[in-house]
Write a sequence for this structure.
């Protein structure tokens, strides 16, 4: 489901659009507002934390259509498969194809094709079983062919897009995709991107817009508009992020099309967020020499054995106006531990503020040059998603200890950070295996002291000729999702 933003990547706490195979577009936006620190099953006792500034995918990520076109041209893959199970109403096994036509030097058009292979096979089997015992000769064969063609058209969807480079630093993208949930509907999106020397500006409007919750469920918002302004500073410089978002219309569950219990962050209203963070990296040990001469590493970013650590701290402020504010303010009343907030019911608005922190450590052995097992990489990260919740929980535990009272499991959970572990191992040549898991302390879980969130497994193929690029095929057992994507210039 995710974009596989591995913990050692430089994204920090900035949320990015996530990869998902449930739609032809291939992306979903994390929900604004709040998320549960104890992500995953059994996290009912968790305390809330602000979901940090969203934003469109940063860096050198290609659109889904451009990724498919690249794999067709340079990886001998005329069809690219993805899988999304029934958990979220996914279409099953699907194959994709895309063609990009350059109409002018600064203008291109895209045609995307999606064929639901699993649905087609199921329908063919059903029709075959119905025709076996039915009488008739040539008429039965003609009926079979007509039904076969109708079934193929029903599971075949098209997407169209066009992109114009207004200037070398700005572009306009307009896309319309066939909706696999409703053959008559479309998913439309318009994006304007402007790159400044040290900032990125993105304006986006989508109808409907696909959102994903921390529990992995998908929701469609009829109309969502966003303005995203972010710094591109690196190293030890502060990074800041501004995001304005407006949702309108009644959200519906992607899986069944019903409203149900809609997450508060998706209700109609306006959300403005501002955040600033600082990240400090330090090398504990790094080996620059020892590489085999005249032999290029499979990935230039993964060629130095080292042990390094990093610390990130930051703060975020979020203002809400509309139905989203009313629902969130009601939920605050039932929280054990919560960040700073001001609610104005008469004006249907709320103000939320919090801080966050993260500590991570990375260790790598090998230069990723030799044919077998020349790169082993470990990474661990501790995330304190809400400093105010941590302080409230700490004071509560100190008070219980001072009064010799039994500790509160919710307070223990509030002060325990989330743990993310990842592992990468070269198998042979440019092929490596990666795995990532997330854990959280939860004393309320019966028979367990911790619960696990999502596990993701991936095979990666490093494209050596590009210096640092890879094709990643990942699978999420919890989401029942799998897809192939391209990643560029990520460590």
């Amino acid at each position: 489901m995710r974009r596989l933003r591995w913990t050692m990547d430089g994204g920090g706490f900035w949320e990015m659009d996530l990869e998902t195979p449930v739609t032809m577009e291939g992306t979903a936006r994390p929900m604004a507002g709040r998320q549960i620190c104890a992500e995953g099953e059994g996290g009912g006792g968790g305390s809330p934390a602000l979901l940090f500034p969203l934003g469109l995918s940063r860096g050198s990520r290609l659109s889904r259509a451009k990724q498919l076109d690249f794999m067709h041209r340079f990886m001998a893959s005329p069809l690219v498969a993805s899988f999304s199970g029934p958990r979220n109403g996914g279409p099953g096994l699907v194959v994709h194809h895309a063609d990009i036509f350059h109409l002018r030097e600064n203008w291109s058009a895209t045609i995307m094709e999606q064929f639901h292979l699993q649905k087609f096979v199921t329908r063919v089997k059903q029709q075959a079983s119905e025709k076996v015992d039915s009488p008739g000769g040539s008429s039965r064969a003609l009926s079979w062919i007509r039904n076969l063609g109708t079934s193929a058209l029903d599971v075949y969807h098209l997407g169209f897009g066009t992109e114009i480079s207004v200037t070398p630093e700005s572009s306009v993208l307009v896309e319309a995709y066939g909706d696999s949930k409703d053959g008559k509907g479309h998913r439309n999106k318009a994006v304007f991107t402007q790159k400044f020397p040290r900032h990125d500006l993105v304006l986006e409007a989508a109808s409907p817009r696909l959102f994903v919750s921390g529990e992995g469920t998908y929701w469609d918002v009829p109309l969502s508009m966003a303005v995203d302004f972010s710094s591109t500073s690196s190293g030890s410089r502060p990074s800041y992020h501004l995001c304005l978002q407006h949702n309108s219309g009644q959200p519906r569950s992607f899986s069944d099309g019903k409203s149900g219990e809609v997450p508060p962050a998706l209700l109609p209203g306006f959300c403005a967020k501002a955040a600033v963070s600082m990240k400090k990296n330090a090398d504990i040990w790094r080996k620059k020499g020892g590489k085999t001469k005249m032999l290029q590493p499979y990935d230039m970013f993964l060629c130095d054995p080292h042990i390094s650590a990093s610390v990130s701290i930051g703060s975020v402020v979020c203002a809400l106006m509309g139905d989203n504010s009313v629902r969130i303010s009601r939920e605050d009343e039932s929280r054990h531990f919560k960040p700073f907030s001001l609610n104005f019911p008469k004006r249907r608005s709320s103000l939320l503020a919090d801080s966050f922190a993260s500590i991570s450590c990375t260790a790598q052995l090998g230069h990723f040059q030799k044919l077998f097992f020349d790169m082993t990489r470990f990474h661990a990260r501790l995330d304190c998603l809400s400093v105010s919740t941590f302080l409230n929980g700490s004071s509560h535990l100190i008070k219980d200890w001072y009064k010799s009272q039994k500790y509160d499991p919710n307070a223990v959970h509030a002060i325990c950070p989330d743990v993310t572990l990842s592992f990468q191992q070269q198998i042979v040549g440019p092929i490596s295996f990666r795995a990532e898991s997330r854990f959280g302390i939860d004393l309320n879980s019966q028979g367990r002291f911790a619960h696990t969130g999502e596990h993701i497994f991936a095979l990666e193929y490093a494209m050596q000729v590009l210096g640092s690029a890879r094709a990643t095929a990942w699978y999420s057992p919890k989401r029942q999702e799998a897809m192939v994507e391209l990643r560029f210039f990520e460590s």
In short: The chain has one domain: 18-116+155-488. The longest strand covers residues 269-286.
